[in-house]
Amino acid sequence: MASILFYILAFVLLAATLLCVTCRNPVHAVIYLVKGFFALALMFYLLGAPLIAAWEVIVYVGAIMVLFLFIIMVLELAPREQPQGPGWKRWVPGLMLAAAVIFCSLLIIFQDPSAASGNPAHFVGPRAFGEALFGRFGLAVEVVSFQLLFAAVGAYYLGRYQPREQDKEETS
Amino acid sequence: MLDNYLPIFTLILIAVCFAIGSTVFSGLIGQKKPSEVKLAPYECGMPLVGTARERFSVKFYIIAMLFIVFDIEVVFMYPWAVMFKRLGMFGFVEMGVFILILLVGYIYVWKKGALEWE
Asked: Which residues 67-86 in chain B show a CB within 8 A of chain A?
């Protein structure tokens, strides 16, 4: 049961990623990327890590996806011309992948494969995760905090407003 | 164990049914008198201002990156919150240091004006 789900999700993940890198329209590519993230989240759940699955959705689907969209907006990559051909054809691959992901999550909700496979030892809930993270790996949490500090400062530094050389010469 | 997730599933089901239901019923029951104004794309109720395919300022991207940084900070609070009692004072101080370090970054970008919209 779990292995069947794994193969379905693996197929969805590979198909979504392939469509993502081959898609001409960058906005469509981001949508395929999000579908890949969802499939990956379910895979983490199958591996017995529900918290990582939730993080995958919160951080990757919720936040990283926004970065990709903003890159498209900042670089003006979205196509200007209207798409050609019948509209439903563009919907088919995306809808099929979405249907597969929803089908897999319904299966997981109604009959838990991690319980059925008799492997609850691998299942790490949020409590056990928190205990290990803040107990044994307490120092690592603080290191992550420093990393996030560097990321915040670096994001500001790279994107700060700096007048270009030629502008400086013109004003002076 | 999965009974825990049943409320989320119920909420998703209600949301999907509401979205599909309101679209279908307003299409079936509602009157259709299309005019040019009604068929125009909805943009916060304002008249359309140019095309949507313009270059945006890099400020959006900085805000998004800062959002991710603090999003990840919050994400670390979930496993801490469910173990709050068990971890006790040690966990509290640990989380305090974690937030304090990030607070330095927050104050830095705030003072530098990265959150200002000029």
From this structure: 67-73, 75-76, 78-83, 86
Is the pTM higher than 0.90?
A: no
Q: At what angle do helices A26-46 and A87-110 cross, to 10 degrees?
A: 10
Say if the Cβ atoms of B56 and A70 lie within 8 Å: yes
CATH of domain B2-112: 1.20.58.1610
Closest residue in chain B to residue A54, using alpha carbons only: B75
SS3 (DSSP) at B43: coil
What is the rounded CA–CA span in Å between residue B108 and residue B114? 9
Find chain B residues with C-beta within 8 A of A71's C-beta: 61
User: Minimal Cα–Cα distance from A168 to chain B, Å?
Assistant: 20
Partners of residue B101 in chain A, C-beta under 8 Å: 142, 145-146, 148-149
Nearest CA-CA partner of A15 in A33, A30, A28: A33
The per-residue pLDDT for range B93-106, each reduced to its tens digit, is 999 999 999 999 99
- Amino acid present at B92: F
Domain locations along chain A = 1-79+90-121, 125-161
Q: According to the CATH classification, is domain A1-79+90-121 in 3.20.20.70?
A: no
- Report which DSSP code applies to B56: P
* pLDDT, tens digit (0-9, with 9 covering 90-100), for A137-161: 889 999 999 999 999 999 888 887 7
Distance in angstroms (rounded) separating the CA atoms of residues A53 and A55? 5
Contact criterion met (CB below 8 Å) for A51 and B78: yes
Identity (one letter) of the amino acid at A124? V
